[in-house]
Design a protein that fits this description.
heterodimer; A: 309 residues; Alpha-Beta Plaits; 2 domains; six-stranded mixed sheet; four-stranded antiparallel sheet; 11 helices; elongated; B: 261 residues; mainly alpha
Chain lengths: 309, 261
């Protein structure tokens, strides 16, 4: 079952008389139990897309269906079964974390309110600051408080817009685990945006790369990485690197960086070129003190797409 | 509209009221200061002219609270959500604009009633003035009309906030004060210059305060003026509700609701 369906979605803004296309006829689907990542540079249209899906922004054209229904036509069902968390919008800062969660629990008609709130506070390690006003929280605590709100109604569809911004590595890792576990236990569909590529790679089943309001590519992270047809190789030799540099030049590889006894170069993944080059280095008898081969990452894909702008 | 969501929002605005000193000042500090200023002014005028102005000034000050609170609370509680960038969460939830406004109007009414009770007690304690001795029926009708007018003004300001964002937040505090000189709270319509009287006579609260003064001095009440006030306010309220709805829809189109600033 498709929990999120988007067909030919278009959104434009007018700024100083000029029309800016923020979302340009995009289509995608997110299945039940799937975590779907939206990636792209700033201004690619990720947040605009999420804002339309959550009903905060009116689309120009296209169709949006959440859990099989168009939100405008089935408001109660769609809204009560979905939720959103973003690092860029706080809960009411005059209220304490617990007061905010009580309000949202009542808005979503959550039963056993206090039990659910305590579960979430414990899950996100916010017990100690539960009765502190939101304005006095650190940015990491704020982000986690918003995530508590995002899960308060056990949503079947969850929108997470850069929801781990400001978290320290330990809490960010725990938060990712909570999100992943929530998805598995509830078979929830999650639409996820983030600038942290490793996070998207770790969490998302499929990824859509956006640029200039368009979806450039939708695929799994391993397939997306195949767009980058090169490996980065770092080699350190025990003696002078000049002969090695000469060899690499004759092999036609692109040297990125060379200093002291180390050299970093890029080599195409096509036609087993990397294996041929490395085997030649060994064959010529170079004594290596270090060899590190790095495959393409989502960062490389991101940079490639961002620079195509 | 769902009652549980209105209750949830009422709980939120109750928390804001008890957590924020400014919001407590709205219902306690400023009205009481107003009451003391007008009470002592009335004492001074009575010393000079032997005219009983105490009931007129204090009655006006106490009843004006309903316009003041009803209008300002709508605008300020909406601004609270802008200030804390909380509109995003509020309107991505099942909350509808009608529920949001109903809860704000209700909390505004509770706050106005709390202020009224406080001012009523203080006026009795310090000036031996009991507003309820005037004419309970007229007072009740005046409270209804003034509150309705305050809501209409509040919806008007709220529409501008949703249309232009926080940059026009000054309207939340200034609009009621802009109207104050023209609605004849503390003086009769007859003292206004012609140009001001032309404005005053169109404004519904003018007729309410004229009726209040007539009741205080046992003169004939102009019921036609009160009927005009009722009909004009009902029409104004409906127009402002549509105006706000249109501004809210526009904020969904322009992205102001999502950005919240």
């Amino acid at each position: 079952m498709d929990c999120i369906e988007v067909y030919d979605l278009v959104k434009t803004f007018k700024e100083k008389g000029k029309e800016i296309v923020a979302v340009d006829s995009i289509s995608f689907k997110v299945k039940k139990g799937e975590m779907f990542g939206l990636l792209g540079p700033n201004g690619a249209g990720k947040s605009t897309t999420i804002n339309i899906l959550t009903g905060l922004l009116e689309k120009d054209s296209g169709t949006v269906k959440i859990l099989g229904f168009e939100p405008e036509k089935n408001w109660e069902f769609v809204k009560n079964n979905s939720n959103v968390a973003t690092a860029y919008s706080w809960l009411s800062d005059v209220l304490t974390v617990r007061q905010n969660l009580r309000v949202y629990a009542k808005i979503y008609g959550v039963k056993n309110t206090e039990k659910r709130i305590n579960e979430l506070l414990e899950m996100f390690e916010l017990g100690k600051v539960a009765d502190r006003k939101v304005i006095r929280l650190s940015s990491g605590e704020n982000t986690r408080a918003v995530l508590c709100k995002g899960l308060i109604n056990n949503p079947k569809v969850l929108f997470l817009d850069e929801c781990t911004v400001g978290l320290d590595p330990d809490i960010a890792d725990k938060t990712r685990n909570i999100i992943k576990n929530y998805q598995k236990e509830n078979d929830a569909a999650i639409l996820f945006t983030s600038h942290y590529m490793y996070e998207v790679e770790q969490l998302c089943d499929r990824i859509a790369f956006m640029s200039n309001g368009k979806i450039i590519s939708i695929d799994t992270s391993s397939n997306l990485k195949k767009l980058i047809k090169k490996h980065t190789v770092e080699i350190a030799v025990k003696k002078d690197i000049k002969p090695l540099m000469e060899l690499l030049k004759t092999e036609g590889v692109e040297i990125i960086f060379a200093k002291d006894n180390s050299i970093v170069f890029e080599v195409t993944t096509e036609h087993d070129k990397m294996y041929k080059v490395i085997s030649k280095i060994f064959h010529k008898g170079f004594m290596l003190s270090n060899l590190h081969v790095k495959g393409p990452t989502l960062d490389d894909v991101f940079i490639k797409i961002a620079r195509q702008k | 509209m769902k009652l549980h969501r209105i209750n949830a929002l009422l709980l939120k605005y109750y928390y804001i009221t008890i957590n924020r000193v400014d919001r407590l000042f709205d219902i306690v500090y400023w009205p009481i200061i107003d009451l003391f200023i007008w009470g002592f002014t009335a004492f001074y005028i009575q010393e000079l002219s032997d005219v009983n102005v105490l009931s007129m000034l204090l009655g006006g000050a106490i009843l004006w609270v309903f316009v003041w609170r009803a209008s300002q609370d709508i605008a300020v509680f909406i601004l609270e959500d802008f200030w804390s960038r909380n509109l995003y969460h509020l309107f991505s939830s099942p909350v509808r604009l009608s529920e949001h406004l109903t809860s704000i109007i209700m909390i505004g009414l509770f706050r106005a009633l709390a202020t009224f009770v406080l001012m009523w007690i203080v006026a009795i304690a310090f000036y031996s003035f009991n507003i309820l001795t005037i004419s309970p029926l007229i007072i009740a009708f005046a409270v209804f009309l003034l509150t309705l007018f305050g809501w209409a003004v509040g919806l008007f300001v709220a529409a501008f906030i949703f249309r232009y964002g926080q940059r026009i937040q000054v309207l939340a505090w200034s609009v009621t004060f802009l109207l104050q000189p023209f609605v004849c709270i503390f003086y009769p319509l007859s003292v206004l210059p012609e140009w001001a009287a032309r404005i005053a006579v169109v404004l519904p609260p003018t007729h309410v305060f004229e009726a209040l003064r007539a009741a205080i001095y046992n003169q004939a009440i102009n019921y036609a003026g009160l009927w005009y006030a009722l009909i004009a306010e009902l029409i104004l309220f409906v127009i402002m509700a549509f105006f706000l709805q249109a501004a809210f829809q526009r904020s969904r189109k322009t992205g102001l609701l999502a950005k919240g600033d």
